[in-house]
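Q: What would this chain look like folded?
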Amino acid sequence: MVILLGLTVAFLNTGCIGNSQSDSNKSSSNNLNSPVDPAENSQQQLSSLSIVMIPSQNSEEQKEKRELFADYLEEKLGLPVNIQIPENYDTAIDLIAEGKVQMAYLGPFSYVKAKQRNSKLEPIVAYIDRRTGRPSYTSTIVANTESGIKTIEDLKGKRFGFVNQSSTSGYLVPLSHLVSQNIDPEKDFTEVLYMGSHNKNAAALEAGKIDAAGINKPTYLNAQKSGQLSPEKYQLLWESDPIPNAPIVISRELPADFISNLQKALINAPPDMAALSGAKSDGYTLVQDRDYEPIRELQRTLGLKTAE
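A: My prediction, written as structure tokens:
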């Protein structure tokens, strides 16, 4: 097992998320919720499994989880597992879209971007959030009250931190809310920073580099619990509707039996191993490409360019 670091508007329809979970429970023995056509499958024999993960979190706890995850897959699949954590989201998208790795742990928006570049990519599972019992999570906007911020409107004239322009809960979803409130980040903020990961965004807020941040709810809760973002000083201004959870993505060009074994291993994985992004999980459930259509709709609504 090898882990490489630093490699170079109402919107979300919660019905999609709920349907995904119920469909998954009914078809857990199916592969990708629909058969893979062997005639379209390269059937190459894999000597190892290369995985890329977006750098959404960089804590020691997450490093340990990734190592356990890799060890588990090696045991179940009988192959060496190599995990790469790039310096940015876009490199992760490049690697899976260009077929340089066989599997990816992506955010919803980074999956959508990768799929737009490589139609053979499919999501196979997403983790179940232990707090809600659903394969979904939320985005938040958190502000330093000492900067004079009490409402979303107060963000105008302040410094704001996003995660990355390919992040869902750290860019796409909070951006959508800001726009719905007639806030144009390019015009209405004195400075916009992209911190690269959710925990770095929370750290920048604590350090006073920014006045408010768009981060996912698990990161906010962890930062609050640790005392990094105390509720006395940092206020949760807004929380989104549920977002379909980060998918594990593969290519349909992989051997059909390998995909089936991989999916089975993931579904049967220990619950705590599933969430590699900082959340508490209750294992994986099956997902389909259609579950991420609300993300594509947000991309279209905001006029963000389609990945090529």
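Residues 60-77 form the longest helix (18 residues).
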